[in-house]
Please model this.
Amino acid sequence: MALDAARREELRRLLDIFVETRSQEAAARLIEGHLPLARHLARRFADRGQPLDDLVQVASIGLLKAVERFDAERGVEFATYAAHTILGELKRHFRDAGWAVRAPRRLQELYLELTRLVDELSQSLGRSPTVAELASSAGVTEEEVLEALEAGQAYRSSSLDAPAPGADGDASVASTLGQVDVAMATAEQRAELAGLLDRLATRERRIVHLRFWEDRTQAEIATELGISQMHVSRLLAKSLAALREVSA
Amino acid sequence: MAERKGAGDEIRLEVPTTPDLLRLVRVVASGLASRLGFPIDAVEDVRLAIDELCWTVASRAELTSTLAVRFVILDAAFTVEARLQPAPAEAAVAALSALSQRILDTLVEDYALLAPSDGQGAGFRMRTKRG
Model:
């Protein structure tokens, strides 16, 4: 992570400005200047089964916290302090994401096969298959099916930073949000709920809306969105986990 | 070994309230749902409901708390009752957010948060819906 002397000097100068003025512009440039450090540290954790992009995002949050909390009086170099804070954030991320245990390859492959089988069997049976039926079709035990489900739905906290509403071109979804409000008791609850759901990406918000406000089944939602039922299930679990996180 | 699926059978589990171990409640619940022949989407509903309720209760737990969970098998459903152990010093009662209520209304037949009582901490109970 060697920076050339001029760049180091520039960052030092920015830090002085920030310490003195708490200027947002200086903060933003400091963050930008230290992003390579955040990326470098994120890569150290890249073999733990989480996408590098997610880790970089976590590291960036650590960097942001470092800028906000840095106290020049302590006599510590900012880069040292930032590295410490970023590593702390990354470690905390892995500790808190205990549900996101890396799945063995055989379970990942079984999960993918189950994704296909759920749709196939749903079509041939005219209803959602049972775990026993899935196990029989896949030639595995029911426990293995359950294990694969668990592995396939390992939660990640990234869905809150997914594309902004409308980013995937589905403009009609935003208008359905208004209907979300109908059953909520108070204006305060409505506002809180709309604010929460707004944090989800458009597709996830639509799935949550269809499932919990229109009482549509996962299979119906899958058909409407042209994705597999298991994918709907996974996105639902992910969205609810993300909403819990943000409302904590 | 003879297989029995008798209504009234109970399973008890006591887990620390850390996310990686609370997932065991979800694992047992989905195992039971599977054993009772729930379709896969209903199994998923059970998992989501357990997540929602465990999170609500565990968010008030102290670091050393455990969650004592009792599953009771019924004819074609099961109930889950969970209590924090020991009861937190301050008897904080968890509350369900409007969103959690909406989610649980959809996913399960019946649910409630339980207030601390008789030395037991706050908790929840739920009854599954087979779908």
